[in-house]
Amino acid sequence: MSQIASSGATSLQNEFEGRRLLVASAAIGLATSMNAVMFYGLGSLMRPLQADFGWERSDISFAVTLMTICIFVFGPVVGRLSDRFGAAAVGSMSLLAYGLATIAMATTVDTLWGFWLAYCAIAVLGLGSTPIVLVRPITRGFDRRRGLALGMALTGAGIVGFWVPNVVAAVTAAMGWRAAFCALAVTAIVAAPLVWFGFRRHEQPSRVAASHVAPPVGLSIREAARTRPFWLASALAASMALGIGGMVFHLVSIFQDLGAEPTTAARYASLIGFSSVAGRLIIGLSLDRFPAGRVGVAVFALGSVGIAMLWFGGLAYAPAAVILIGLLLGAEVDLLAYMASRLFEPQSFGRIYGWLYGVYAVAFGFSPPVVGRLREGFGSYETPVLVSISLLAVASVIAFMVGRQSEKRPVSIGAEVN
């Protein structure tokens, strides 16, 4: 019996042998990913832009709306490129391209329309630096430890909320907002070769195989759209993003409505960064041990409790509420990537996950204004809280159904990954 246990532990350990650099490269790429860096960067640079140009905050933040639309429209396209040419090429070129485009924007743009167009160009060029592409080698390289490997890689995206505001604040104070955008761009450019070298050796066998036989094509988006799992996963992406996005965005305002001082409210809200990073690792470990559907139900239940505590429990429960919400925020993208990798064959992962991630991004971006309108219409956050909890309840049911579907599919790790 002990020999069997030892053999199982060795097998699990062997999955990380030779792939530690792969996981580290994915984490580095995601720590400089376009969507996270340009989101947090713009949030930190809103006041300097407003002071320099006189633009309204709503006009400045509209750039993020355009970014999410580009992710939705072009996500499947970039995913298909990743399926065809590999994550090493697409990911590294995307980091380099969006870094250079950001420098061009920072040094030339001086009109609002130009700023919007530049953000659209950066979004399209930088899509390859998002989880759509950078988690692809993880899903192909890991089976029994896939959840943990995804969680470790996606912690890179979680720490963006820590380093970007600090870098932006320091550089802006010393040299202005244009230099701050350039500093963010440099991090992406530096990360590009690290992603290339970290990913390349794991894709070499696929190129060798491709020289002898035609590469497997996999399902197209149109073909996948004829299947029940595709629409279940799409509904899961939309419901969980709508349920959590507005709550996260309005955290500080909710605390202030409950009577907290602005500095206290900001301190409470900052806990979400730490808990979201922890959430990625916890969800990863859980997915390797328990059925994905049950893990999803548990995560959404905890998130719902956190949201309920946030409003109905008052400030006394604020830290606990934010930690639970952060755990959910950190778990969502990991859960979606894991389920997509189990539902669909590896050759189709990039394009299908590109679609699902686009749905998630648009729903997440759509949620804050909806919560704001509900707050204005009903005079408090009670109704938005109840709506968010209801959406997460729907997500729980769908997650269980998606989990059942994923268990029926045979697991297939690409033979090209060693």
Notable characteristics:
disordered N terminus; 418 residues; single chain; mainly alpha
Mean pLDDT across the residues is 82
Helical residues, percent: over 70%
How large is the count of helical segments?
19
What is the count of β-strands? 0
- Radius of gyration over alpha carbons? 21 Å
- Please mark out the parts with pLDDT under 50 across 5 or more consecutive residues, or reply none: 1-11, 205-216, 410-418
- Global structural class: mainly alpha
Percent of residues in β-strands: under 5%
* Separation, N- and C-terminal Cα atoms: 29 Å
What is the helix/strand order? Answer: HHHHHHHHHHHHHHHHHHH
Globally, the shape reads: globular
Q: What does the largest sheet look like?
A: none
